[in-house]
DNA sequence: ACAAGTACCTTGCACGGCAAGGTACCATGT
DNA sequence: ACATGGTACCTTGCCGTGCAAGGTACTTGT
């Protein structure tokens, strides 16, 4: 029951995290998923719908590239509006984080 | 679209915040909702299912009390297991927050 | 030939916040 | 007397999004 907190926490934050990763260089879904799995326990099945959504919203663009180890990789690249989204989402996150910390107060 | 980040962020965190508020003293749903609305923009409709859930999980107990300004208030009080849940949720939150900060890195 | 790793993707499910609506009680204003 | 607005309770139906489980296909090592 309580472990579902972990799951719920991720909602909304994952997009921001992916944007942040992409801001450090183009990358492909499988690798992003691995990093996120390690960092916050994201499941692989989550990344593909997410990337699709982000592409539909114009936050990322894609290009294919051979890899020599499996099928060709679909690289994602941050667009300008993706970079803007990252900026605003980070500031929202900071506001939120601050509010939560304030509520938790000394309970921390 | 992007504003839904705000919504998603709350998922999972609200329960912890309510527990934290109650750890500072018994309170009733309407007041909790008001505080949370101010702090993180929670809608009133959210609190009642949430309190019900928490009661079912044994995290809180309730008692009625007259108020003289409207219907009697249903006060919620943290149980022992509620206090424990708060503790463990806070530590999960800290871990998560740290992981996110690490991903954001210099993008902050 | 076969397993294991890489890399892509889909489907159905569950969780939980939201908006909108509804009830009822009390005080104040007109 | 009646309406308004605040307090305080609650329900219903909706929607977004992460998850688990499953599926495809290519490449390399045994």
Secondary-structure element sequence of chain A?
A: HHEHHEEH
How far apart lie the N and C ends of chain A?
A: 22 Å
Strand fraction of chain A: 5-15%
Count of individual helical segments of chain A = 5
Task: Tell me which oligomeric state these chains represent.
Answer: homodimer
Biggest β-sheet: strands ordered side by side in the sheet of chain A? 1-3-2
Radius of gyration of CA atoms of chain A, rounded to a whole number: 16 Å
Main sheet record of chain A: 3 strands, antiparallel
Account of the 3D structure:
The structure is a homodimer of 108-residue chains. Chain A is an alpha+beta fold and 108 residues long. Helices cover 62% and strands 13% of the residues of chain A. Chain A contains five helices and three strands; from the N terminus they run ααβααββα. Chain A has a three-stranded antiparallel sheet with strand order 1-3-2. In chain A, β2 (60-65) and β3 (73-78) form a beta hairpin. In chain A, α2 (13-22) packs across α5 and α3 packs across α4. Chain A is globular, with a radius of gyration of 16 Å. The model of chain A has no long low-confidence stretch (mean pLDDT 88). The A-B interface holds A 1-2, 4-9, 11-13, 15-17, 20-21, 23-24, 39-40, 57, 85-86, 88-90, 92-94, 96-97, 99-100, 102-105, 107-108 and B 1-2, 4-9, 11-13, 15-17, 20-21, 23-24, 39-40, 57, 85-86, 88-90, 92-94, 96-97, 99-100, 102-105, 107-108. The structure holds a DNA duplex (30 and 30 nucleotides).
């Amino acid at each position: 029951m309580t472990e579902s907190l972990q799951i719920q926490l991720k909602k909304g934050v994952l997009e921001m995290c992916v944007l942040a990763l992409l801001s450090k260089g183009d990358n492909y879904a499988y690798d992003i998923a691995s990093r996120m799995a390690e960092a916050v326990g994201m499941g692989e099945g989550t990344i593909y719908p997410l990337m699709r959504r982000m592409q539909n919203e114009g936050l990322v663009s894609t290009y294919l590239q051979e890899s020599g180890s499996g099928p060709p990789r679909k690289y994602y690249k941050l667009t300008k509006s993706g970079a803007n989204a990252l900026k605003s989402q980070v500031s929202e996150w900071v506001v939120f984080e601050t509010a939560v910390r304030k509520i938790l107060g000394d309970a921390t």
